[in-house]
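Customer escalation, tier 2.

The customer says the design service returned an amino acid string that "doesn't look like it belongs to this structure." They asked us to rerun it and document both sides in this ticket. The original structure tokens are below, unchanged.
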């Protein structure tokens, strides 16, 4: 599972020196120094003629060279510290053939930032939902290579928010949440949303005022409906209004292996439960955040996700939620009688011990299918449906390791399905478990623990 992480935590370890300087007028990248521009001069530049003559229609001119419109330019071309109005930025962008963004990017930089951080905004993204991205040019152009931008059909399942299977409900203490209004079965899609914004945690290297400036400007570049969604979000930290909404509601996602904060306003409506009935994952190609039911959810039941790693003991979970999210955990796994929460903690400890043993593939391993069965049962007892893919995977491998074909298949099938819902359809575990489900004897674990001298009893072996 990915987790919901406040932006300030992501940057906690890269606290940066803020450098405050006067903004200087510098050259606009496109003209590579030929024209010194200031705020009001954009309209007077003969851009159209210059560009149309210079490059074929699928390319744009940057630093005197033609680049394919959607390939990352070899060097930074958007220059920093120029502030234009949105209208001017829109006009400039519209005058470039095949320019991928709706507004000419505004950027800031300083000694701490090898690449400037810019605002990239595309109002037509995801069928007019729009998106803005605050990051460096190479990373933004990397995102342009994703299916979400290149192939709008890849978003067929995204952003269908009409007629949802839930209603908004106001709970006495914890506030609003979503309650199912029809029966949901495991695997039913609850949400599939593209982000309104993606913000690079490293943009904290900018002066605070510049970073905030990019975020405000970003929100104002979104289509009206998306702006309303953004401002409708609740915050809970103090400080700037845009920052607070982002910090409170963002999800950490990885795009091209880089951690980014992404905001999916619909999903922010789901409350936390340590024993959630839904799970989520982020699909990098479609830039879509999916939420699916992990078990049958009855009408009237609240739909929940876990904001944290809920395989941790109660005290640990309570601390984490209080610190990162500012609330006291009031889900049943936190508020049960001490005798019961002690049992729960004991199960969680035992889960960790079993995982360690099952992960041991050495000659001395004592791992057995019985151990894996106990693990699966403990996840069940703990109601950790959203995490069960792991237990099933261990069971599949433990049976495969003693050559029990059909039990390996049984658990591989379960693991594949749960992994799709919890880790995403292109996750490595999904591929591995699908392979095992069709041919266990062709996987690395097959018969791996047959004939181990110590420990392994081979009792799960097929007869
Ligand atoms: C932009 O302004 C910052 C201070 O806000 C300064 O440190 C940086 O050098 C400027 N960048 C350029 C390219 O002028
Ligand atoms: C559930 O509620 C939503 C509004 O949130 C509504 O659009 C939908 O039709 C309802 N579905 C059912 C089955 O009542
Ligand atoms: C991400 O980085 C890790 C190492 O840091 C590397 O092994 C892996 O291949 C990278 N993944 C992608 C998709 O680039």
């Amino acid at each position: 599972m990915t987790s919901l992480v406040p932006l300030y935590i992501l940057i906690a370890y890269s606290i940066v020196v803020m450098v405050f300087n006067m903004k200087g007028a510098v050259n606009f990248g496109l003209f590579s120094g030929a024209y010194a521009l200031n705020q009001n001069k954009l309209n007077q530049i003969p851009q159209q003629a210059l560009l149309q003559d210079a490059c074929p229609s699928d390319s744009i001119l940057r630093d005197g060279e033609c680049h394919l419109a959607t390939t990352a330019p070899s060097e930074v071309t958007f220059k920093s510290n120029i502030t234009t109005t949105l209208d001017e930025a829109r006009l400039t962008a519209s005058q470039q053939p095949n320019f991928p963004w709706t507004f000419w990017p505004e950027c800031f930089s300083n000694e701490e930032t090898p690449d400037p951080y810019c605002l990239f905004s595309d109002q037509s993204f995801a069928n007019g939902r729009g998106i803005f991205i605050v990051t460096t040019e190479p990373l933004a152009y990397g995102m342009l290579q994703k299916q979400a931008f290149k192939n709008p059909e890849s978003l067929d399942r995204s952003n269908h928010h009409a007629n949802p299977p839930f209603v908004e409900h106001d709970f006495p203490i914890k506030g609003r949440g979503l309650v199912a209004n029809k029966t949901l079965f495991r695997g039913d899609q609850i949400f599939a949303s593209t982000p309104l914004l993606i913000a690079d945690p490293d943009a904290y290297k900018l002066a605070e005022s510049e970073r905030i400036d990019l975020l405000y400007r970003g929100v104002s570049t979104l289509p009206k409906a998306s702006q309303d969604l953004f401002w409708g979000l609740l915050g809970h930290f103090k400080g700037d209004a845009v920052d607070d909404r982002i910090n409170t509601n963002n999800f950490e996602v990885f795009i091209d292996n880089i951690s980014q904060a992404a905001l999916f306003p619909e999903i922010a409506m789901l409350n936390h439960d340590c024993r959630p009935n839904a799970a989520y994952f982020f699909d990098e190609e479609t830039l879509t955040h999916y939420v699916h039911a992990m078990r049958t959810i009855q009408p009237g039941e609240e739909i929940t996700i876990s904001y944290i790693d809920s395989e941790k003991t109660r005290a640990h979970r309570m601390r984490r939620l209080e610190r990162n999210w500012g609330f006291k955990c009031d889900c049943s796994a936190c508020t049960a009688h001490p005798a019961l929460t002690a049992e729960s903690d004991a199960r969680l400890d035992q889960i960790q011990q079993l995982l360690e043993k099952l992960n041991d593939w050495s000659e001395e391993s004592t791992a057995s299918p019985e151990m894996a069965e106990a693990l699966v049962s403990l996840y069940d007892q703990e109601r950790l449906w959203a995490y069960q893919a792991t237990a099933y995977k261990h069971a599949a491998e433990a049976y495969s390791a003693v050559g029990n074909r059909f039990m390996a298949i049984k658990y591989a099938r379960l693991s594949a399905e749960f992994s799709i819902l919890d880790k995403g359809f292109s996750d490595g575990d999904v591929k591995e478990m699908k392979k095992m489900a069709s041919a266990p004897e062709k996987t690395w674990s097959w018969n791996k623990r047959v004939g181990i001298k110590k420990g392994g009893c081979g009792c799960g072996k097929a007869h």
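Tier 2 assessment: The sequence is consistent with the input. Residues 6-53, 71-76 have pLDDT under 50 and may be disordered. Residues 19, 21, 23-24, 26, 80-81, 108-110, 207, 210 surround 2-acetamido-2-deoxy-beta-D-glucopyranose (ligand 1) (CB under 6 Å). Sent an explanation to the customer and offered a walkthrough call.
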